[in-house]
């Protein structure tokens, strides 16, 4: 497990991250003393942090550590911001380079569920998140994030996993050209999670869906909705059903959400292929993009 953690963090932070990983047992022990934790096994490591199972006062918790202290401090602020929604883990404690969060039970990522949430369940998550009033100073950079997502897709086109996919550079260039029309008219904005792919949404049992790892911004609500819709590609319900049902339940303009789906479908197909996803899903996404 230590080797896997080191490899991921070195990719993110460079060779110096290996030295930080070497100090990880001492950091965990220090947090255990400070917060009176019983520490368990680590979760699969993320790209920027390490999460460890823990209990505090008999309550299940997650200890999150990172060599990037400001990154965790920003995450703590985002979690506090969304606390009124009840849709993110509660921040139990904070120290430089460490967060203690409530554990979400059962906590399975929606991406891994055999039965994915119905559009009405996902809409309830979006409505609760987007009801939080945005404070001053939150970045309004959805267009920049969209451009980066599309250009990242272009940068991966030469990879072997995409060799026979049918993806073309013009699929992405057409989407980039379409951003002017999408962002030209004024459109109501909300406080967004900002990175609401289905790996960042957990099954919270009777609590409903819970979002993790926000990258908060202000912008079009479609940005938080589009991943769920496109995840219907290759599944029995399909993109069109999710599009219409989610739009209705979440009170999102269906035509605008459809435009969003078309613009990011090719870049989403790249992600599907790199994860070893089905050809059926890719075919549906490419048909939508074109």
Automatic annotation (TrEMBL):
GO terms for biological process: secondary metabolic process. Signal peptide: none annotated. Keywords: Kinase, Transferase. It holds the Pfam family APH_6_hur. One of its GO terms (molecular function) is kinase activity. InterPro entries: Kinase-like_dom_sf, NH2Glyco/OHUrea_AB-resist_kin. The keyword Transferase applies. This is Putative kinase. It comes from Actinokineospora spheciospongiae.
């Amino acid at each position: 497990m230590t080797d896997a953690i080191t490899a991921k963090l070195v990719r993110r932070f460079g060779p110096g991250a290996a030295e930080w990983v070497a100090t990880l047992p001492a950091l965990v022990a220090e947090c255990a003393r400070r917060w009176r934790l019983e520490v368990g096994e680590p979760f699969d490591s993320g790209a920027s942090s390490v999460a460890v199972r823990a209990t505090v006062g008999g309550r299940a918790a997650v200890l999150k550590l990172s060599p990037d202290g400001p990154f965790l401090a920003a995450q703590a602020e985002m979690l506090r911001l969304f606390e009124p929604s009840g849709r993110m883990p509660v921040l139990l404690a904070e120290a430089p380079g460490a967060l203690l969060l409530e554990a979400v039970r059962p906590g399975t990522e929606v991406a891994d569920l055999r039965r994915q949430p119905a559009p009405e369940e996902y809409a309830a998550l979006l409505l609760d998140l987007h009801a939080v009033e945005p404070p001053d100073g939150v970045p309004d950079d959805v267009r920049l994030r969209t451009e980066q997502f599309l250009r990242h897709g272009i940068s991966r086109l030469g990879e072997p996993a995409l060799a026979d996919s049918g993806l073309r550079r013009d699929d992405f260039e057409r989407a980039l050209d379409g951003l002017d029309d999408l962002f030209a008219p004024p459109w109501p904005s909300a406080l967004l999670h900002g990175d609401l792919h289905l790996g960042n949404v957990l099954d919270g049992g009777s609590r409903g869906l819970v979002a993790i790892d926000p990258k908060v911004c202000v912008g079009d609500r479609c940005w938080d909705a589009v991943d769920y819709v496109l995840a219907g590609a290759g599944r029995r319900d399909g993109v069109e059903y999710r599009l219409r049902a989610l739009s209705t339940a979440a009170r999102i303009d269906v035509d605008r959400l459809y435009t969003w789906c078309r613009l990011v479908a090719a870049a989403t197909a790249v992600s599907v292929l790199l994860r070893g996803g089905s050809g059926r899903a890719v075919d549906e996404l490419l048909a939508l993009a074109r």
